[in-house]
Design goal:
mainly alpha
């Protein structure tokens, strides 16, 4: 029993030490996202999406990169845009790109894994958005037009209405602290502080989950197994990590924090992350968000879910093997 408690204390100590190490950049990322949400830059770009035609795929991709919204928050937005007339192609580009990159995500990646990996994921996110958008546009005439994608006709109404009949799409933003502060004070600085608090809880939670996974894995899984998977230069680690992360809910911040503990020479295991394995985890893990696939399964026809999964998996593998073959790193 004494050994058990000693192990728990060591796990807790390691977790706390690693969390303190990433805390400065976690704060910077949270403040960046709070600024964007307070000034509503992403909302202004979002409103322009339906006016750009085919170019809206590129606009949606850039919005997904810049937006602080995660995949679960983006999906109701995407469905509302589809009902408002946005084609499926830019909607898919936005949905695929959004979980891969954000201001906080880039900041934390830069601190945890270095500027090279932060830039690689940024380029990968832009590629994934364009790849998903233009391939969906190509398939538009093969059963992927807007009138053929939903399982049933969705009721009219505002997703922000607390009485909207489809619970999976009903927005809960009105219950957020920042909305209460805005309604009561209309003070942008107080709203900014409230949004920073909300973002800190969300991003901190996901970062903490990643660190917990890393600390537990480093403690109980032999180092040679982890190194063989993350340092592997063959094709097997890429396929294994890509398909293993499909059923996992691994947001970008969680994936980065987990890898940080493995590769950091200061406090981690000092594993050298292979390019293919890194892309498989940092792209393939976040893009196949389990809650998003659940809503896809409920709201859309099966072909749309299969298209989404096919785009995520094929895009991840294409990126992983291409980056692996490049003679340079970002």
């Amino acid at each position: 029993m004494e050994g058990f408690f000693k192990g728990i204390v060591e796990l807790g100590s390691g977790l706390w030490h690693e969390f303190l190490y990433i805390l400065p950049f976690l704060v910077i990322g949270v403040l960046l996202e709070a600024t964007i949400r307070t000034l509503k830059w992403h909302v202004k770009i979002r409103k322009a999406l339906t006016r750009f035609g085919v170019l809206s795929i590129g606009v949606a991709t850039l919005l997904g990169v810049a937006s602080p919204l995660c995949a679960c928050a983006t999906l109701p937005l995407v469905i509302s845009l589809l009902l408002a007339g946005l084609p499926l192609a830019p909607a898919m580009a936005l949905l695929v790109t959004s979980p891969l990159m954000s201001p906080a995500g880039y900041t934390l990646l830069n601190w945890e894994l270095g500027a090279g990996w932060a830039n690689a994921v940024l380029v990968g996110a832009i590629f994934m958005g364009l790849f998903a958008g233009y391939l969906t546009q190509f398939l538009r005439g093969y059963g992927f037009s807007e009138e053929l994608i939903f399982r049933k006709k969705l009721p009219a109404g505002d997703f922000h209405d607390p009485d909207y009949p489809v619970e999976e799409l009903r927005c809960e933003c009105g219950k957020q602290l920042s909305h209460h502060v805005n309604r009561c004070t209309h003070n942008k600085f107080l709203v900014f502080l409230a949004r920073a608090w909300e973002g800190g809880l969300k991003i901190g939670k996901f970062a903490l989950i990643g660190l917990v996974i890393e600390v537990v894995a480093s403690t109980f899984i032999p180092h040679e197994w982890l190194a063989g998977l993350l340092e592997g230069t063959g094709i097997l680690p890429v396929f294994a990590l890509t398909f293993a992360t499909i059923p996992l809910h691994m947001p970008q911040v969680t994936a980065a924090a987990m890898l940080y503990g493995f590769v950091s020479p200061e406090i981690g295991a000092g594993i050298t992350l292979a390019k293919g394995a890194g892309v498989a985890l940092l792209i393939g893990g976040p893009v196949t968000a389990l809650p998003v696939m659940g809503v896809f399964f409920t709201m859309f026809r099966r072909r749309v879910l299969l298209l989404y999964l096919g785009l995520c998996i094929s895009g991840t593998l294409l990126l992983a093997f291409t980056y692996r073959l490049l003679p340079f790193s970002f």
